[in-house]
Write a structure and sequence with these properties.
CATH architecture: 3 Solenoid
Number of strands: 10
Number of domains: 1
Shape: elongated
Helix content: under 10%
Structural class: mainly beta
CATH class: Mainly Beta
Length: about 170
């Protein structure tokens, strides 16, 4: 897996390159970047810090995002199928229409984020903490939320959970 610096990533993206598959971006810190449509399939973004980054329509299939922090990130229409986000933190982010099919989100946290029309089919959601999130029109089997921590959450069936563990 080839390593790349933040500066090189931004320069190459700015020059029109979009495919950064299977690159090593561990510990990268990105702030106020526009990376719409970037392809990071199979990339290693473990322990990365992303703040106010535009990742609309990004391809993050099979990406490793263990312990990554995403704050104020726009991942609308993103493809995170089979991605590993174990221990990740997502705050104040837009995930509308994103695909998390068969992704691993165990022990992660999603706070104040928009989950409208997100596909969580087959995703591992064990012990995920959802706080002030809306699952409107999301594809998620209510049984997949068993063991999740839900605070002020609107479930796909319209049920409002104010505080508790889904059991």
């Amino acid at each position: 897996m080839a390593e790349i610096t933040r500066e090189e990533l931004l320069a190459r993206y700015g020059a029109g390159e979009r495919d950064f598959s299977k690159l090593d971006l561990r510990w990268v810190e990105l702030q106020y970047a526009s990376l719409r449509g970037i392809i990071l399939s199979g990339a290693n973004l473990s322990d990365a810090r992303l703040f106010r980054v535009d990742l609309r329509e990004a391809n993050l299939t099979s990406a490793c995002m263990t312990d990554t922090i995403l704050e104020d990130v726009d991942l609308s229409g993103g493809n995170l199928s089979e991605a590993v986000l174990q221990g990740a933190t997502v705050r104040r982010s837009c995930l509308t229409g994103s695909n998390f099919e068969n992704a691993i989100l165990a022990e992660s946290g999603m706070d104040d984020s928009c989950l409208n029309s997100v596909n969580f089919s087959g995703a591992e959601l064990c012990e995920v903490s959802f706080t002030r999130c809306n699952f409107r029109d999301a594809t998620v089997n209510i049984n997949e939320l068993l063991g999740c921590y839900l605070t002020e959450v609107c479930l796909p069936n319209g049920e409002i959970v104010t505080n508790g563990i889904q059991d």
